[in-house]
Write a structure and sequence with these properties.
single chain, 177 residues, alpha+beta, Nuclear Transport Factor 2, Chain: A, 2 domains, five-stranded antiparallel β-sheet, two-stranded antiparallel sheet, 3 helices, 7 strands
């Protein structure tokens, strides 16, 4: 075999291998970008039941209306005597405080309900203007009940679709003049 023929075959094989490497590199880049785009999409959740259907996944961002609805619900669970506490809405410390308050109110024969007038957001705290209605039999009395509450974010669940938890609630002390 002649040297120039052998060298020509080696050169053509090298050229073919270079073209294949560039082609495979482009193909790898294409699949990498496609995989990245598909992985950043929201997951498709199929609700299995009698009829299968795609289930919409809620956004993880909370709206102010959603937060306000949670504040109303959690404060009702915390302070209303006739409302049962659901798991995940208020912290363990707040549950203990509610149980103590319930014992005190039951010994006196009182029942209480909280009426929320307005909610103001300040960073991670919320100021709540509320009225506390205390009932003894048919007699009812309403008192000003301003609160400062702190919420904690957690993952959304079937039991707590808000993904929030009432961690602390404090009554704002008002000075009498």
């Amino acid at each position: 075999m002649r040297f120039d023929v052998a060298w020509g075959k080696v050169a053509s094989e090298n050229y073919f291998l270079k073209v294949m490497i560039i082609g495979l590199l482009l193909l790898t880049a294409f699949f990498g970008i496609a995989t990245l785009k598909l992985s950043l999409k929201d997951a498709l959740v199929i609700d299995r039941g009698c009829f299968s259907k795609a289930n919409n996944i809620a956004s993880t961002e909370r709206t102010s209306l959603e937060t306000e609805a949670f504040v109303r619900e959690s404060l009702s669970q915390r302070f209303d005597t006739e409302v049962e506490v659901l798991d995940g809405y208020i912290s363990a410390d707040e549950k203990i405080l509610k149980i103590q308050e319930l014992k005190d109110l039951e010994t006196k024969g009182f029942k209480q309900k909280i009426v929320i007038n307005s909610i103001q957001s300040e960073k991670d705290l919320f100021k709540v203007d509320a009225d506390r209605v205390i009932r003894v039999g048919e007699v009812r009395s309403a008192f000003k009940f301003p609160l400062v509450i702190k919420l904690e974010s957690k993952s959304r669940s079937q039991g707590n679709p808000y993904g929030l938890m009432l961690v602390k609630s404090e009554v704002i002390k008002t000075e009498k003049k």
